[in-house]
Recover the amino acids of this structure.
């Protein structure tokens, strides 16, 4: 089960084989830190300056796999 805060690896797409941490989850999709970055045009407001902002977008959970930290440490020792 993929939950917020867990480490995952991307199995498909332009960010294939990259690792990151789940920062948000909705239905069958998850946002992963520094993965699936998109450009968003933001309008200027009184509080914020506008422009083009890069941010994470959702990726389907079928394209993600959990990373087992215990196994990773064991493999590194061999």
């Amino acid at each position: 089960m993929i939950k917020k805060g867990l480490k995952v690896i991307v199995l498909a797409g332009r960010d294939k084989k990259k690792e990151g941490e789940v920062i948000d989850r909705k239905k069958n999709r998850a946002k992963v830190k520094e993965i699936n970055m998109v450009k968003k045009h933001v309008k200027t407001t009184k509080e914020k300056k506008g422009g083009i902002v890069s941010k994470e977008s959702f990726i389907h959970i079928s394209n993600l796999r959990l990373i087992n930290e215990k196994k990773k440490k064991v493999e590194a020792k061999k």
Observations:
- The mean pLDDT is 89.
- The CA atoms of residues 4 and 21 lie 8 Å apart.
- The chain has one domain: 7-70.
- Residues 7-70 form one domain.
